[in-house]
Amino acid sequence: MDTTRTTGAGTRAPARARRSRRTCSAIGLAAVAALGLTACSDDRAATGPDDSAGQRSTASPPADLAAGQLAPDGRTTDVVSGLEAPWSVVPVGDDGDAFISERDSARVLELAADGSTREVGTVEGVRHGGEGGLLGLALHDDDLFVYSTADDGNRIERYDLTGDTGSYRLGEATTVIDGLPANTFHDGGRIAFGPDGMLYASVGDAGQRSEAQDRDSLAGKILRLTPDGEVPDANPFAGSPVWSLGHRNVQGMGWAEDGTMFAAEFGENRWDELNVIEPGENHGWPEVEGTGGEDRGFVDPVQQWSTDEASPSGLTVIGDTVFVANLKGESVRAVPVSDPSSSTVYFQGEHGRIRTVLPGPDDTLWFVTNNTDGRGDPRDGDDRILSVPLTTAR
Fold first, then answer.
1. Which of 167, 128, 122, 163 is closest to 146 using CA atoms?
2. pTM score over 0.90
3. How many distinct structural domains can be found in the chain?
4. Where do the Glucose/Sorbosone dehydrogenase domain residues begin and end (predicted)?
5. Which residues 6+ apart lie within 8 Å of 221 measured at CB?
6. Interval 321-366: pLDDT, tens
């Protein structure tokens, strides 16, 4: 799972020990030498789809799929492999180009449509540790926004991008907001621009549970800002960037075509959540986990899952379907926008931990594995971005 659960009153359950990177055996090195390749090093480069046999799987939609809902339908293929703890992926245009953040190295990579990668730059001052590091990315007006952990707290910066496809570089950085609550766990970290052109950011409770209920604290919140970091006039609390509160650790946000905002949230020991977000609403943490808070003035999730089957991270909405990446659940979940209380699970256990989902080119879904972040079981070629065709039920 991605975020440390707790057992009992204030006792943290031990996270899985960080795994050592695999090393090549003598036989493996001989085979690599014979092929004239370089691999199995700590500094290995990401490789395109032709350079790895990949971890193939096939998905098919259920027979009772609701009309209009999208579903994976076909064989997965590798878009790129050999990534190190990837966290966020944002498309650049419609042809398969994208930017990738690597949590621990603080590198931003440019992914080309042919599957090759190159370094765009390294975000300065990133403090790596636990769940912290270089996290969310978002593009807006040719600027790249990045969410990262620094010595004095979490922050969002805006980078001028220089160059063009195949030659992008990180230019000058401007701080949008800093001093956000930070810890080695519960750092939130997802940023996205909504249909209103505003910047939304998820901030975890950073281990300060009670502050999720404090409107004067930014811990355990979803924030809404202008691209320059100002507080929009239409925010629910005058002068405050807080858009919603009572969150533990939101890591997925997205909007349906009708403007409905969805967010995926890590619970503690019992329930992970899918929430519909409205301005000013309180989602209950830490007073309530999962459903059961409406009588106390809190907003219940539209769907909940046991923590063992979910640990939801990235989220995207394509057409009438919400797709959610699951870390401990090792799956991609599809939820109808029209009936968000139901869902269908795909790829369970087939690719390990899934961190991020996003629309791919040509009616595909991309999803990103996260097996090299110290809590997964890396497989040959991990981590990777995979692509699968999408079909629409009729």
1. 122
2. no
3. 1
4. 83-375
5. 202, 203, 212, 242, 243, 244, 245, 247
6. 999 999 999 999 999 999 999 999 999 999 999 999 999 999 999 9
